[in-house]
Amino acid sequence: MKQIIIKRLIIGLFVILVVTMLTFALLQLFPGDPAKMIAPWAGEETLIEIRKSFGLDSPFHIQVLKFYQDALKGDFGESFFYREEVRTLLFSYFPRTIYLTLGALLMALVISIPLGVLSALNRDSFIDRIVLFISITSQSLPNFWLALMFILFFAVKLGLFPAGGYGSWQHLFLPSFALACTLIATFIRSIRSMMIDVLEQDFIKASEARGIPRLYIIKKGLRNTFVPLLTLFTMQLGYMLGGAVVIEFIFNYPGIGLLAMQAVLRRDYPLIQGLVVLISTVFIILNLLVDLSYTYLDPRIRKEEL
Amino acid sequence: MNLDTNIDNNTLLKKDNINFKGKLSRWYRFLLTNKGIFFGSLITFIVIFCVVFAPLVTTYDPLKQDITKRLTPPMWQDGGSIEHILGTDSMGRDLLTRIIYGGRFSLLLGLTSVLIALMVGTLFGLITGYYGGFLENILMRIVDIQLGFPFIILVVIILSIAEPTFWVLSALFSLLLWPGYARVVRSILLSEKSAAYVLAAKSLGASDFRIIIIYIARNIIPSMLLMSTMDIATIIITEAMLGFVGLGTPPPAPTWGNIMADGKNYISTAWWVITFPGVAIWITLFGINLFGDNLQQFVNPKLRKKY
Amino acid sequence: MKNMRTTIGSFIVLVFCLSLVLSSVVWAAPKGELKIGIAQDLVGNWDPTQHTVVTMLQVEPTYFDFLVKVNIDGDLEPMLATSWENIDPLTWEFKIRESVKFHNGSLLTSADVKSAIEYASSAKNPSSAWLPGEIKGKIVDDYTIRLITDKPAASLLYSLSMIPITNKEWVNNPEKFAETPNGTGPFKFVKFERDTLHLEANMDYWQGPPNLEKVQFQYIIDPSARLYLVKTGQIQIAGRLLSEQIPIIESDPNVVLEKNPIVEQMWLWFKCKKSPFKDNPTLRRAFAYAIDRAGITKYIMYEQAKESNSLLVPGVFGYAPASNMPSYNVEKAKELLAQAGYPNGQGLPPLKLMVAVGAWPKCKEYGEYIVENLQDIGIPIELFTVEIGRLGAICFDEEPEDYDLQITGWNPTGLEPDLFLRALFYSKPGRLSNIDVPEIDQTLDKELNILDLAKREQVIQNETIPTIVDYMPGLPLFQTVELKAVRQEVKGFKLLPSTVYDLHGVYLAD
Hints:
- The complex is a heterotrimer of chains A (about 300), B (about 300) and C (about 500).
- Chain A is an all-alpha fold.
- Helix content of chain A is about 80%, strand content about 0%.
- Chain A contains 12 helices and no strands.
- Chain A is elongated.
- Chain A starts with a helix and ends in a 9-residue tail after the last helix.
- Chain B has one domain: MetI-like fold.
- Chain B is built from 12 helices and no strands.
- Chain B has helices spanning about 10-15, 20-35, 35-50, 55, 95-130, 135-150, 150-160, 165-195, 195-205, 210-245, 255-265, 270-300.
- Chain C folds into 2 domains: about 1-190 and about 490-510, Dipeptide-binding Protein, domain 1, CATH 3.90.76.10; about 260-480, Dipeptide-binding Protein, domain 3 (Roll).
- In chain C, strands 1, 8, 9, 10, 11, 12, 13, 14, 15, 16 and 17 form an 11-stranded mixed β-sheet that branches. In chain C, strands 4-5-7-6 form a 4-stranded antiparallel β-sheet, with helices on one face.
- Chain C is globular.
- In chain C, about 30% of the residues lie in helices and about 20% in strands.
- Chain C has 15 helices and 19 strands.
- Chains in contact: A-B, A-C, B-C.
- At the A-B interface, helix 1, helix 6, helix 7, helix 8 and helix 10 of A face helix 6, helix 7, helix 8, helix 10 and helix 12 of B.
């Protein structure tokens, strides 16, 4: 097992290197001169100086090498636009997105566990159908549209929650809810099916016959769901990051998604590079976790195949 | 005692492989009797119908501006009229018409991207799964790199370089999706590779090609269908997202995403521009997901309801 | 006994006066934080000579001072210069205010004035667009300086209200400017973080400290978000709102609507160095007659715009409607189109109109409308949208690859006609339209050198403006009427036509 992890980590590192180089290449193709974005009205001399100060005048391979060198030291350079170290920007923005994602996870759990259990207990009944309807609905709603509807109702009309920004748990509520929607659908389905499995097992029926309270059985069943749910969650994280961009945009929530979008639109090369490294690393670790959980769940896929 | 807990439906299917007719009728029966599939298909069909036959459904021109009628409310509100059932957008264009035509773009985009992704992904998956070895390693590394690259950044970068035309968007989505198909195909292949009937066929002298195409590919179809429907849903939503932040198809062509983008500034004053495209997406996706969810029960029998 | 009473009396009087003084000092102590939501991005470059970005121009007067200041009536009053005198047609002598300190503590002297003005007017720097050529400074003594132009410049005095006085150590030193702008203004730069500029009160301000402790300018791109944040009190002032939002503002008892026409016009610019517009003013005029500007103002913008028929706006010296400004006339447009060599649009290459979505309110909407107007007479044209960030980089291109026309606003934050005419239409540096016509240059030079106000006005109205309009480098679409929502606890705030933020007298009531 350990060998596999090490092997995957090495591959992961390789992937990060390739991805970084690809980004560099893509950015060269980018129309739009970052020097001009910073000082659009400057004359040619000033532009040349600005390009020099950002190292944009050296040839491609030297730029790439310099980037790797600096990255190893932990220095990702300075953002063109914010004039702050990329490192500090990433460290301050990333946790906020984490709070958002964790908030979404929490909400999804709070909503889907009761619904999933209820649905499993009352299989094929009216309640079951309603829960399934809710599940499919939450999967079908575009989450950014839902976010806009939330703003319209809860923030503007009712004034219960702030419509944007960052600061307290209230700022987190609506965005997390919007983000939680896709999670809710998959969670409900998994919880329902796993609970059904547990309830179907013979020894459970036997225990019921002997009078052991249902709640106890439900709890036992739920315990089994945690790992699969976590796996599901990690699988969805990649997609959620994409959704988080739009949600952060709508709520003006200062997380890594919004930062990424603005960095690209502003041609902030060092910030883009830093973000690419950060996000790739996160994705790779996530994928590793997902793959490991797959083997945990389905031993048919031989381990060497990893 | 449940005697057949170890023999799940997949195994039953394999037995039926020899009996071609039997399998088909089982599937056929399932599709027709399952209520979810029925309603899901019905909704989706209605949507597709409206969208394909748009000029019959609505006589308005989605591009016709009339600035004297900007932002008129839907017909049931003050100031609305029967002329514009759902109201008009910020340039006076009929909202319902734009939504229907927008659906054309979204659905076509979804279909095209998924088809391309499916073909490319299945090919890769079949090759890597069956042959394994060095080739497989390389291909799986490509998939890794693909998955390691933050999609958002890639999308925003590419859409800033190239104009976001239909084909550019299609290529982007195919790029995003093909690893999913490759992986699924590969994993099914891996588990089928050592199945009894395959070994049997091989020992009887069947060529690799024949085995892949005839025996194994059949098992892939339900999963592929499932993935495709889910992916079309994803594409519809993602296109809407991109359009909403301004990276989608340029004006004046309507897409669900950019109709909402246009209405973003008027969220508290002309709520209908933002709301109805979202409802359209909801209905469409509801149909697709209903269909897909129930199909999934067939593919993964653990979820199957016992009738 | 009498002495005792006098002593007690005078003591009481003394205490009374002391307490008056003390209470006024206490009352005048800065308190509160004013948060302002702005619609356009700030540039992270604090050197005022390196840009012509309107948001920066609006914000700079909070931390920079100028030699002279334009008051609400449009007249010049002393600021860092206490008095001035015209020595000869080319020279003005200024007396500099004493005991003014920069934010870093150093004392303002005429050496700072000299370096600031020479640097700002140097042709190398973008800020020279506002100024009538290079201005040289000659130091007479620490608090007296002479400013010399090489030709008589009618706009000189006014232009001085637009040159921030920077510290001589800072001039030409980008590293120092990157840390802090170091001005002499009522507020000090604290930091620029996450699209928000933070300022704090300058307790040593020569006019006395301001009434606000802190000021914040926050870039909020979405007008709904801006209005919403004012309604909830998270910011106190929000600008650039939409006509559709007026009912919401007016129905809220905590928020006041401030509405004022400002010195900004939205323009449709032709790229005059690029074919097919190059050397073809008839073609440009054909386009101009095809556009329904009245419709844009009436139906799309309504409360947010006023119709415009001049290159200047009312309130600017020399303003008068231009008699030859094209109106909406489809027949005439088609006629001119044929005259220009493209009957019914045949022969024209596919054209693109560039619009930066979100840069100005509703610009995409009237962009789409203009495209439709032009398509209606047969012109093959499409809308080309870019993100705001890219606008600055490409709008000044002489021969841009991607577009042939653009919609861009112009707000020079001042009332001097050359801020519009010379900055936009002189062949150098060319700016948005890149028009290069000797006749235009000649008439601009002519009016610049006339020091007699009446004569200058006459030349501007009867010669300069009609000449430029004839060549149609750009079509003014409308004059912007700015809509601001201000919370009722903000007192002393005025939305100035020049749109700069004059916050010294503003305070927050409890």
